[in-house]
Amino acid sequence: MIITDTGVPEEHIARDKWGGETMLRLDDGWCSAVDRETLMCTIYENRPWICREFEMGSYECRNEWQPRD
């Protein structure tokens, strides 16, 4: 959930029917803000609070935002 305003661009936000905001996942499960070639966040300076808990590219980050088999 996006719970603070960090400036996440609108094109990376998904809203549920109750107005809750999360990072948008693409049809294949990837976070829309992750560059698949570098595995780096394309909105790093404006990433949501929860993403700030993980070091960019760390196991926890990759595990959270990559598709699950």
Automatic annotation (TrEMBL):
Pfam families cross-referenced by the UniProt entry: CxxCxxCC
InterPro entries assigned to the protein according to its UniProt record, in alphabetical order: Puta_zinc/iron-chelating_dom (IPR005358)
Protein name stated in the entry: Zinc/iron-chelating domain-containing protein
Lineage summary: Bacteria, Pseudomonadati, Pseudomonadota, Gammaproteobacteria, Vibrionales
